[in-house]
Design a protein that fits this description.
Blueprint: E1 5-8, H1 16-32, E2 41-44, H2 51-58, E3 64-67, H3 84-89, E4 94-97, H4 100-105, H5 110-122, E5 126-131, H6 135-139, H7 143-156, E6 167-170, H8 184-202, H9 204-209, E7 212-215, H10 223-227, E8 234-237, H11 244-256
Parallel strand pairs: 1-2, 1-8, 2-3, 3-4, 4-5, 5-6, 6-7, 7-8
Helix pairs in contact: 1-2, 1-11, 5-7, 7-8
The structure holds 2-phosphoglycolic acid.
2-phosphoglycolic acid binds at residues 9, 171, 176-177, 215-218, 236-240.
Length: 258
């Protein structure tokens, strides 16, 4: 009942022309795979400056386009910020929020992530809201406590009632960009926990239809195994989203995983 979703997070990579070329290559590749409509959702996450060109290149292909962040504010004196409405105007359909690189490198706290998520949904973008623990927390056996707190403070704090269209991404920080992937069983355990907590908060029907993506060193050779887990509904892909062949292989895995 949940359509798998594969989203690329290009991070701070790709100039405008490179982004356009990658978007075209992915759109053509997805068409070669028989098209994604009704079978999976595929989303590209370029940096802001390449986003309009990527949206244009993806137009008509059914691919979604995600911003990598957005302001919690609507308009006004917020130097350097980009609002949800601006992203939507430029062609975005989704926005990645609360990524661990922003949380860890830029000090984004759950309360800010919650305000951004609320602004995104109000502005017509589907948030892909990232959660995940650093290695010391996992080693201390505190993964579920930590993720549970993030659910309360960055999701429940933003949405007292069920947020239609919210997408969650579980990304263990120790697996991001390191080549170390969570095992399918490790990831499944946390995904099942997230779905059950969301079910307690928003109801089991809402939780049963909500996508929970896995992120952290997803590659063509491990995607199928991860996506076959019952509570893993696709992936948020960093490094492997920068090459069309790798990203398309991962999309292919999502199309056939379940
Ligand atoms: P990675 O990044 O696939 O390069 O590990 C994932 C992410 O940060 O979203």
């Amino acid at each position: 009942m949940r359509l798998p979703l594969v989203a690329g997070n290009w991070k701070m990579n790709k100039r405008i022309a490179e982004g356009r070329a990658l978007a075209r290559a992915v759109a053509e590749g997805v068409a070669r795979l028989g098209g994604a409509r009704g079978r999976a959702e595929v989303v590209l996450g370029p940096p802001y400056l390449a986003l309009p060109a990527v949206a244009e290149a993806a137009a008509g292909s059914g691919l979604g386009v995600a911003g990598q962040d957005c302001s919690p504010e609507k308009d006004g004196a917020f130097t350097g910020e980009v609002s949800a409405a601006m992203l939507k105007d430029a062609g975005a359909t989704h926005v990645i929020l609360g990524h661990s690189e922003r949380r860890e490198l830029l000090g984004e706290a759950d309360a800010l992530v919650a305000r951004k998520a609320s602004a995104a949904l109000a502005g017509g973008l589907l948030p892909i809201l990232c959660l995940g623990e650093a290695l010391p927390l996992r080693q201390a056996g505190k993964t579920l406590d930590h993720v549970g707190r993030q659910i309360r403070e960055s999701i429940l704090a933003a949405f007292p009632s069920p947020p239609e269209g919210l997408i969650v991404a579980y990304e263990p920080i120790w697996a991001i960009g390191t080549g170390v992937t969570a095992t399918p069983a490790q990831a499944q355990e946390v995904h099942a926990f997230i779905r059950s907590r969301l079910g307690e908060i928003y109801g089991v029907d809402w939780a049963a239809k909500t996508r929970i993506l896995y992120g952290g060193s997803v590659k063509p050779d491990n995607a199928a195994e991860l996506f076959a887990q019952p509570d893993i509904d696709g992936g948020l892909i960093g490094g492997a989203s920068l090459k069309s062949e790798d990203f398309l292989a991962i999309v292919g895995a999502a199309l056939t995983a379940r």
